[in-house]
Design goal:
The protein is α/β, with parallel strands linked by helices. It contains nine helices and eleven strands. Helix 5 packs parallel to helix 6 and helix 5 runs parallel beside helix 9.
Length: about 260
């Protein structure tokens, strides 16, 4: 463990870490910043390479760190300049963008979901429901932004992630590999009366306002909608995704899918 005290906001290392608060800086450094004890623990236990630990000077440096890991100790004013939270916990980590690819037959697919809270919540719910990974189209909110990361509550480190340049082409490939592609849309067939989907499936959640794009709909094997028994015309994207993910995995566990 290499400990270094960094006291100036003009320090090049501090400036690079501050840049991770913005998407441009994250792409330039191929890294992102996580904050708080839980997220740092999750990062250290994951397959993501942790480049450095950042500790406020009033905090105790955690024990059991890898010997090669640099530790930067910062005064409060410098740490606060890096932080994206109102009440920083005094612990952060610089993590390389090296997510694992999805492995398995149960995927959540996001097509233009733009709210960071929705993206993070969907990933957290997918992790809880036992899905194998997530596919995020190019128009989605940045999964490595501070707000999205907080919403995942650490699930970002347990989900295989794929970022195709062309989402429709990616789904076409999955269809060729035997996946059922379920498009969630208001004009679909009733979700609870859907045709069987098999063991390999990808559930598509569309943009909060415009829904699933036409190009992605064209690749769907199933077009489904949740029942609206009350006065609401639609559901929040993360809520709808959670209901369907849990139902799909429940039916799989009980054996067989399709009409109830």
């Amino acid at each position: 463990m290499r400990t270094e005290y960094l006291t100036s906001l003009k320090n090049p290392r501090i400036q690079a870490l501050r840049g991770l608060k913005d998407r441009k800086g994250r792409l330039e450094e191929n890294a992102f910043l996580v904050e708080g004890d839980k997220m740092v623990r999750e990062a250290l236990a994951s397959g993501f390479p942790v480049r450095a630990l950042i500790v406020r000077e009033d905090r105790t440096i955690p024990e059991g760190l890898p010997e090669h890991l640099p530790v930067y100790v910062l005064p409060e004013r410098v740490f606060s300049a890096l932080s994206d939270t109102r009440t920083p916990q005094g612990l952060a980590a610089e993590v390389a963008m090296q997510p694992g690819k999805p492995e398995g037959g149960r995927l959540i697919v996001l097509d233009g979901v733009q709210d960071p809270g929705n993206v993070g919540t969907i990933l957290r719910t997918a992790d809880a429901a036992g899905l194998d990974g997530a596919v995020l189209g190019p128009d989605c909110a940045d999964v490595f932004s501070p707000k999205t990361l907080r919403a995942t509550m650490g699930s970002i480190f347990r989900m295989g992630l794929l970022f195709p340049e062309n989402l429709a082409d990616c789904l076409k490939t999955l269809r060729g590999e035997g996946y059922s592609i379920l498009s969630s849309q208001l004009d679909g067939e009733p979700f609870y009366e859907r045709r069987p989907v098999g063991e390999k499936w990808a559930l598509v959640i569309g943009n909060e306002g415009s829904g699933v794009s036409a190009e992605v709909k064209a690749e769907a094997t199933h077009r489904v909608r949740l029942p609206m028994r009350g006065g609401a015309e639609s559901l929040n994207a993360a809520i709808a995704a959670g209901i369907m993910m849990y139902e799909l995995t429940r039916r799989e566990t009980e054996g067989g899918q399709g009409k109830r």
